[in-house]
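Input for the complex:
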Amino acid sequence: MYKILHAENLAGNIFLMQVEAPRIAKHCEPGQFLIVRIDEVGERIPLTICDYDKEAGTITIVFQPVGASTERMSHLKTGDSFIDVVGPLGQPSEFIHEDIEELKKKKMLFVAGGVGTAPVYPQVKWLHEHGVDVDVIVGAKTKDLVILEKEMEAVAGNLYVTTDDGSYGRHGMVTKVIEDLTAEGKQYDVCVAIGPMIMMKFCCLTTKKLNIPTIVSMNPIMVDGTGMCGACRVVVGDEIKFACVDGPEFDGHLIDWAQAMKRQAMYKTEEGRALLKLREGDTHHGGCGHCGGDK
Amino acid sequence: MADKLTKVPVREQDPQARAANFEEVCLGYNKEEAMEEASRCINCKNAKCISGCPVSIDIPGFIKEVKEGNFAEAYKVIGKSSSLPAVCGRVCPQESQCEGVCIRGIKGEPVSIGKLERFVADWAKENGVKPEPPMPSNGHKVAVIGSGPAGLTCAGDLAKLGYDVTIFEALHQPGGVLVYGIPEFRLPKDKVVAVEVENVKSLGVKIETDVVIGKSTTIDELLQNEGFEAVFIGSGAGLPMFMGIPGEISSGVFSANEYLTRSNLMKAFRDDYDTPIKTGKKVAVIGGGNVAMDAARTAKRLGAEVHIVYRRSEAELPARVEEVHHAKEEGIIMDLLTNPLEIFADEDGWVKGMKCIRMELGEPDASGRRRPVEIPGSEFEMEVDTVIMSLGTSPNPLISSTTIGLDVNKRKCIIADEEYGQTSKEGVFAGGDAVTGAATVILAMGAGKAGAKGIHEFLSKK
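Predicted:
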C-alpha cells in the first residue's frame, strides 16, 4: 500500500497528491511517469510525476478527473492509500543527459497547458537547480484554473501566464503567446510543450512555422507501462514507438496527431458509460441500452 | 469395465455453455477416476516418462501412491521436483513431454499423467496439505527478478534450502504469464495460481510487487546496496511483435498481450472491474500458437465471431492439439493459409477490414516446416472490427541494458549456461523465456531449478 500523505484540491477540479513511494522517489528524473491503481478492482492509470523528494521518499502527482477512474481517485483523502504505485517509468527528459554548460547557452521555452503545468514543473525545477533558467508559458482556460503559479515562479526565468478568457495574465491561447514572444524579439532553440493532445498539436503547428524544434510528452492509453502490450503505440516519423518505453517525450514535429487522437478516443464510450454509472448509479437505464445496468 | 488401452475420459464443460463463460473448461478427475487411471500405469523400471519431464518428476512413484489412494504421499513425491503441480498439470504440453514417451502410448493411449498430477495438486489444496517445510535459514540473501514460472520455481527451490529469497515483480500481482497471459478458463487465477504462489510464500519467500528492475532499482544496486549475494533473472519474454503492415496503428488493433492482460490480469471481462475491453463483433486473431488460441477463445467468450488467420495449414499450427480442438468445439473459425497484407480503418480510425492473400505451402525452410508462399492474384478483403496480433514475443531489453556486464545475444536474449543458468556476470543467473525466448511453462520451471542449483553451488563456495 502507498499512503497518501497529502491530498489537496488545487483549483477547479484539479487535484494534487503527495504519496509515499521511496523506491520511485529515489530513482525518478524529470520527464518520467508512474502508474497508480486505486484498489483491487481499479484500472492502471498513468500519471506524470510532478515533484519528488528523494530524502523523504515521496512523489507528487497532479491530475484532473476525465473518466470514471480519475473521478474515483479524486475522492481519495489524506491518509488513504493506493493499492499500487509503479515507477518511475519511461525515459527521462533528454536534457538531463546534456552538458550543463551547453544547456546554459540554449534558449529554452516550456509551454504548459492546463493540468500539463504539473509535468512541466519538475523539468523547469531541475534546470533551475542546475543553474539554467528558462522561459515558461502557462496557459489555462480561466483564472481559477491556473495551478502551481507560485512554485513555477520560483524556478522559471520568465513566467508568462495566459488565460483563454483573459481573466488573468495575458489573454489568449498559449500558441498566441509563443507568437507574441517571438514577435517581441525572443528567440528559442528548443520548445517543450506539455498538455492535452490538442494543445500540443497546435503548439507544434506554431513552432513548426517559427522553426523551433519542439518536444512533446505523449499521453496515450496505457495498460502495463513497461513495454509488454503496445497499447500506447504512437507514430513518430516513419516509425511506430511505444510511448511507455521509448517516450513519453518525442519530437513533436514528427508525431501523427490525427492518429494519436483517434487512438486516445478508443474507449470513449466505455469511459463515458463507466462515469455515468459511477455518478448516477443504476438509475440511468433509459434509451441508450448500453449502460449494462438494466439486466 | 475400463478399456486399459484408452485414458479414463476427463469431464469437461459442454462446448456451447463454456463458450459463453470464463469458468474452467476441463473439470478434472475425481478420486475414483484418478485411481482408475493410475491403475493403467505399469510402473516401468526404466521409466521413460521421467526423462520426458523437464523437471524429472518421479512419475511412476507418485502414480503408485494415487493408485493406492495415498494422495498426500503422492503430493509429497511431486513436491520434491515441482513447485507448481496444479499449474503444470493444466498447461504443460504433455503430448510432447512425459505422455509423449509413455510406453502405454505405443499400443493405445498414454497414461494421463498431466490430469493425474492436476488431481493430486487440487486434492492437496482442498485438503489443506502444504508443501514440506524449508530447511533452517542459512542467512544468504538472494534476489529473484520476475515471479513467473521460472522465478517462482527458483525461489521455491532456494527457500527449501534455507535461503532468504525476495522476488521482485513489475506488475501488481505475482505469477507472470500465469496471471496475465493464460486465461481463467484454462488456469483459474484464485483457485490455482494464487494458491501455488501462497505455497511458495509459505516457504518464506518474500514477493515485492510494483518493482520494475531497470527503473525502480537495478540489479547492480541490489547486489551493492541491498545486501543480495546472488540474483536470478526470470523476467520472461514479454515484448510483443507486430507485423509492420499498413493500418496496424488503427484503433481496434491489439497485441495479444494487451488483449489478454486486460481480460486476465485486469479482469476486464467482469462488470465489477474498472478496466475496459473492446469486445468487437467480428474479430481476427493473427497467428496460430497457444496465445492465439487463448486470445481467440477470450474474444469468443466476450461475444464475438472469431477467426484464426494463419499463414500455414492446420498441421503446422504451433498450438497444442487439445487447445485447437477446444477452440474449434467452441466455434472458432479457422482461416488457414491466409495472411493479412493491410488493415483498413474507417474515418474514426477504427478497424473495418483487412486485405488478405491466400498462401500455399512450398519447400521446407530452415525450421523444417514447409514455407508458406503467396498465391499471386488471390488477394481478398475480410470484414472485421477487431484485429489481435499474436505473432510471438521477445525479451524486454530493460534489464540487460541496465545491468553492467550482462551479455545478450542478437535476439536480446540473456546468454546463460543451461545446466546452472550462469550468465556473463558473476553472481547473476538467468533462465526461462529471458534466455530462450518464448517457450513453455515447464521449460521455464526447469530453468528455474537449474538457476537455484547454480546459485546454491556459487554461494556454498563463498
